[in-house]
Amino acid sequence: MAFQDVCKQSYIAEGELVPIKVGKQEIVIMWADGGEPKAYEARCPHEGVSLGQGDFNGRLLYCIAHGWVFDGRNGRSLQPAGWQMKEYPLRIHNGMVQVDLSP
Q1: Cα–chain-centroid distance for residue 36?
Q2: In whole angstroms, what is the distance from residue 99 CA to residue 72 CA?
Q3: Domain for residue 65, yes or no?
Q4: How many domains does the chain have?
Q5: Is the pLDDT of residue 55 over 90?
Q6: pLDDT, average across residues 4-9
Q7: Backbone angles phi and psi of 9, in degrees to 5
Q8: How far is CA 100 from CA 18, 81, 94, 97, in A?
Q9: Residues in domain Rieske (predicted)?
Q10: pLDDT, mean of residues 24-51
Q11: Cα dihedral sign for 82, 64, 62, 102?
């Protein structure tokens, strides 16, 4: 695994979504209420719209383009069902959030 620093740990908090650009790739760090921080590709599986601009209420992420709804705890699509956000391994090391974006 090739973890790389993406932001300081202090930039993320429970109940928030943080969009981050890593090179040319956009990811989101989602920390659902009562859960753990997770890293996902910031592209809606429907039409590739940026989920970094989505509306996150601490548990659910709403795509601004067509209203798709994702569970912030696991990236699963709730409306419509049957889709999944691409998740990347995430760890916190020495005060930094690190993500492995390797294929």
Answers
A1: 11
A2: 17
A3: yes
A4: 1
A5: yes
A6: 97
A7: -60, -35
A8: 17, 27, 16, 10
A9: 4-99
A10: 95
A11: positive
